[in-house]
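Ticket #4471: structure output looks truncated?

Reporter: J.K.
Steps to reproduce: submitted the chain below (334 residues) through the standard prediction queue, then opened the result file.
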Amino acid sequence: MPRPAKSLIARLRSSSRQLVRELGFLNRTLAGSGLPPSSVHALIEIARASDITARDLSDILLLEKSTVSRMLLSLIRKGLIEEQPSARDSRVKYLHLTQQGHVRHRVIAQSAEDQIIRALTPLPPPEQRKIVDGMESYTGALTACRRPQPARPQSGSGAEPSPTSAAPSPRLLSGYTPGLLARITLMHADYYAGKAGFGADFEAVVAAGLADFAPRIARPRNLLLRAEQDARIRGSIAIDGEDLGGDLAHLRWFIVDEALRGSGAGRALLRRALEFCDRRGFAETHLWTFQGLEAARRLYESHGFRLTESHRGRQWGSEVLEQKYVRPLGGRDG
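Returned output as attached by the reporter:
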């Protein structure tokens, strides 16, 4: 690829400096929060994730672990965050916002949104999209140049660079983001069209279920997780704590796309979802699938699910042997 012209580099450096100043990053505090920029970013990332550790935060913020530890201690002392041990491993501590932390996060989010609205509203929609597309492209390029590049094979060696050597680890984030429901529907439609021959009826079932769930995503008994890589949604899982009634959780829309299969992302999504179920005290977690998805079956069984029902049905549009799996609280049998 050609090296960028010096004039282009100078323009981008100038714009970057001005952007940092306009966003307020040279101030001691940011976005009316009374907190330094690094702490503001920490609160934002903790709010976005259902479960996040100090190590995760260090990787996301590109800060040394010791720096993150000191920052988190300050936020704990201010009453903005708290640590909760993992239900599976007490050595692992997840970070969550306190009630006061949620209030502070809303102030930060509103300030950022207001600033964007003021800047973009005077511009026509094509210019607005051009700005956003440019920002996404530039941040993606900065991220890509920070990662180790795969080694080039020597001529005639027959060796090829690993296709995954430069791929970043997926991030697990919770809650709604624009395009999420459509992306979950598309991942299901693409995968199951090839795997089981499901068509429009199946896609409609997935879309309708998500439409029903959407207004309930933020309720405390519900969870919607996504796996993101390179700013693209590549996996999902949901816990619906309302539709089955009682103390039952319904595990739904669990899928990863081709780019993440075999990476451990599916296992990570399932683990986070089940930890949520255990923290909420659901007596059982139920899921419905069908015969023939052997990798998924092994994953479910390794996390305490057991097959309880099996019958032929057409709820997804084509006749399959439908199966119901149940996991008791904590994954314990009996």
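Triage note (M.O.): checked the attachment and the full token line is present. Residues 171-331 form a domain with the Aminopeptidase fold (CATH 3.40.630.30).
Status: closed, working as intended.
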